[in-house]
Amino acid sequence: MHPALQPSRPIRELPDELISQIAAGEVVERPASVVRELVDNALDAGATQITLRLLAGGVRLISVEDNGVGIPAAELPIALKRHATSKIDSLHELESVGTMGFRGEALAAIHSVSELSLLSRTAHQDNAMLLDGRSGELQPVARAQGTTVEVKELFYSTPARRKFLKTDNTELAHCVEAVRRHALTRPEVGFAIWHEGKLVEQWRAQQGEGALERRLADVLGDDFVRNSVAVYHQSGHITVVGRAGIPDAARARSDHQYAYVNGRYVRDKVLSHAARSAYEDVLHGQRQPVYALYLEIDPTRVDVNVHPTKIEVRFRDGREVHQAVRHAVENALAIPRTTLLGNPDSAPGLTPTTPAWPNAHWQQAAMPLTGNRVSDLGQLWQPQARTPLMAQEDRPRFVPATDTAGKLGPTPSDSPNHPSGARQGAAPFQGSGDSALPDGTWPLGKALAQLHGIYILAENSQGLVLVDMHAAHERIVYEQLKQQMDVQAMASQPLLIPATFHATAQEVATAEACAEALLELGLEVSVLSAKTLAVRAVPSSLAHGDAVALARSVLAELSQHDASTVVQRARNELLATMACHGAVRANRRLTLDEMNGLLRQMEVTERSDQCNHGRPTWRQLSVRELDALFLRGR
Known about the structure:
Layout: H1 16-27, H2 31-44, E1 49-55, E2 61-66, H3 76-79, H4 91-94, H5 106-112, E3 115-121, E4 128-132, E5 138-141, E6 146-152, H6 159-162, H7 168-183, E7 190-195, E8 198-203, H8 211-220, H9 222-226, E9 228-235, E10 238-245, E11 257-261, E12 264-265, H10 269-278, E13 291-297, E14 302-303, E15 314-315, H11 318-334, H12 338-341, H13 360-365, E16 446-451, E17 455-460, E18 463-468, H14 469-485, E19 492-502, H15 505-513, H16 515-520, E20 524-529, E21 532-539, H17 547-560, H18 563-582, H19 592-603, E22 618-622, H20 623-629
Parallel strand pairs: 1-7, 11-13
Antiparallel strand pairs: 1-2, 2-6, 3-4, 3-6, 4-5, 7-8, 9-10, 10-13, 11-12, 14-15, 16-17, 17-18, 18-22, 19-21, 20-21
C-alpha cells in the first residue's frame, strides 16, 4: 500500500530512547565519530596526555583516557543526559564558542547506541568514581586525576547500522585519522593510539618555540616540512599561519589537506577553494596540493553551530576569509625557494615575521623585473655590467664547445624560428665571459655549461644545480607581463554582429551586477530583455572563438566566485600563453653571461620554482647525492 493511502496516525511525542537514537544517527556515523567527540571533551578538560585504546577497529571497544581536570562524582549521571554540558550557559556564549564541544549531545548519543561507562576523578576527590551507563550504578575505584570513557559494542542496539561498517582495518584507519587531526593543532598534548594491545601511533607533547613545526614533522613526516613553505598572513580580523606544500609535493588525492578554524578541524568549501586557487599559477591538472593551515578569527564572526558533527562552519564574511587564505598561501609560494639555499641549515619556521631575503646584496645586483616587454626579450640576455661583486675572473671548470669562429653555437640569426625579440647575435667566448661569482654567494650558483641546448648546469655551495632554461625564462616573462597588466587594460574587439542568446535569470542578474568585471576581461555583455543577453565585444586574443560559450562560462564563474578572482584567473591564462611563445626556445646556445643573467633573474622572480604549466624549473643535486652515485665513502 502506498504510504499516502495508509490510515493516518495520531500526532504524539517520540520516546526519549528513540529521540536519542535518531540524534545518534547524526552524531555517531562510525567508531571514528566517537573518537572525535571523546577527544574533543578530553581537550576541553585541559588534558596534556590522551591515550586511545581500540578493539576490532573501535567496534568492540573504544577507550579514551586523559589527565584533565576530571568530572565531579555528582555530575557523572548528568553528563549522560541529552543537552547537558558545562561548555556554554547562554546564547552569548553559543555565539562565541571557544571550546571544542558545546552541544551536549555526544555522550548521550553514544550512550544510546553502545554500552558506556564513565570513570573520573578530580583533584579534590579521595578516589575516582565509576558510572555504569546501563544501570546508573556509581562505585569507587582507583585512578589518578582525569577521565576514562569506555564505549563497548558500538551499535549493539541498532544492528542495522552495524552492517554498514567497513572492515576493522578501515575503521581503525578512520580512528587514527580522527586523532591525527587533533594532534596537528595541539602540539602541547601527547597522543597514543593502541589497537588490539599494540601501539599503532604515538606523538609526544612538544613545548617551546617551534613546537607546531615539530608536531607537523612527527605527524605528516619530515618530507612534508622539507617540501613546504611557512605561511603567515594577517588581514583585519583574520590571521593565517601554517605550512603549504610546494607544487612538487602535490598528490593525486586531497588526503593531506588540513584546515583549522580557531583550533577546530573543518571541511569548508570557502577554505578549500581559496587554498586551491592560490596554486593556480604553479599547479595544473588534477594534482592536489598539501597543506596545514590554521585560521584564527574572532569567534563572533564564525558560526560553528551548523552541523551536529561540528566539522562544518559558516563565516559572516566568506569573501574576507577567502581573500585572506588565498593571499596567505600565494605570498608564501611567491618567494623563490632559492632563498633557502643561502642558508640551508635554517628551515623557515612558523613565526609571525615577514620572510626576509637572506642575501639582500644579490637582489640589488640582479637585473630589474619591470619594464621588459615580450618584444624586448633581448634585454634579459645582455651581459651585465660588472659590479665589485663580480670583479675577479674565474674560468669555469667546464665550458661549452665552440665552433671555429669562436661563437657559442647558432645565434638567433641562424635560427629562423627563434622569437623575434631575442638578442641578434651572441658575443664570442674569449675566456672572460664568465662573470666571476664568489662561492656560496649566489643561491643558484654560477653557470658552468649548457647541456643539449636545454639545460643549464650551475655550481653552488650545495653542489650541482640543473635549470630548464625555457621553463625558467617562461616564468620570468610571465611574471613581468602580469606586473605590466596591473596598470593596463585588456584589449577587446567589438563584434560586427552582436551574439545574442537565451539566458537564465541567474545569468542576467550576474551580467548586470558584474558589468565592470566583464569589461576588465574585454567582454561587453548587455541585457536585451529579461531572458536575453547580447555579447557585443570579446577579448582581442579570443576574437575567433565562440562568444556565447565564452560569455556563459565567465558568467558561471562570476556567479560562484569573487569577480576579482575570475578576472585575474582569465587574464593570467592569456598571459601564460603569451609568455610561453615569448620565452627562449630550446637549442638556443647561450653565453655564460646569459646563463648567469637567467639564474640571477630566477633568484628574484616570484614563483620561479615552477613554470606556467606547473613543471619544476630547477633541481638541486647535493655533493652527498653525487658521491652516492659514484659509491664514494663506501
